[in-house]
Design a protein that fits this description.
Blueprint: H1 3-15, E1 23-26, E2 32-35, E3 44-47, E4 52-54, E5 58-62, E6 65-70, E7 73-79, H2 80-102, H3 105-141, H4 168-176
Antiparallel strand pairs: 1-2, 2-3, 3-4, 5-6, 6-7
Length: about 180
């Protein structure tokens, strides 16, 4: 290859302008957004019929995601599906709370009575059993006690015999008997 041919090839390669293909997305409002790639930190533009200008600060909802723009650059991209799932879960919780509140007080009272009634009957039967056991124990263990002071037996006290001389031991034995 001649140096002149080589020089021509280099010039043709250098003269070819690098074409940057920009990706475009349209918001739900019909605004066309354009960026080299829809990634955090990239420049983003709004395309109109007459001109292309840097995007204003704010949120743009496109294709299941929300693009947050600050100073003409993509600050963050949030998937809308996650937000939708949270909203759906919150809506389901609200529905459950509404269902709970829709039950009337009378229905609640009726349900409580139905649940507690068998327990009350069981407790009543146990109380009756305990009462009958206590009555039987009282009758068997406690006999009627009668006390009349007139029928108290007179205990005879030994009479001391002062005529006889006794020693101390005999006096103690006499008292013990």
């Amino acid at each position: 290859m001649k140096p002149s041919e080589l020089l021509k090839q280099i010039q043709t390669l250098l003269s070819v302008e690098a074409k940057v293909e920009l990706a475009q997305m349209t918001t739900a409002d019909g605004v066309v957004l354009e960026a080299e790639a829809f990634e955090v930190g990239r420049d983003i533009f709004i395309v109109s019929e007459t001109e292309t200008v840097p995007a204003d600060n704010g949120e743009y909802k496109v294709d299941g995601m929300t693009i947050i723009v600050m100073d003409g650059k993509i600050e963050s991209i949030v998937e809308v599906e996650a937000e939708t799932e949270i909203e759906v879960e919150a809506a389901e919780e609200v529905k459950e709370e509404v269902k709970v509140e829709a039950v009337s007080q009378e229905e609640i009272i009726k349900a409580v009575i139905e649940a507690v009634a068998p327990l009350l009957e069981e407790m009543k039967s146990q109380i009756e059993e305990m009462k009958s056991e206590m009555k039987n124990n009282k009758e068997t263990k406690m006999a009627k006690v009668t006390h009349s002071p007139e029928k108290v037996a007179q205990v005879e006290k030994p009479k001391a015999n002062f005529n006889k001389q006794t020693n101390v031991l005999e006096t103690i034995f006499a008292k013990l008997n």
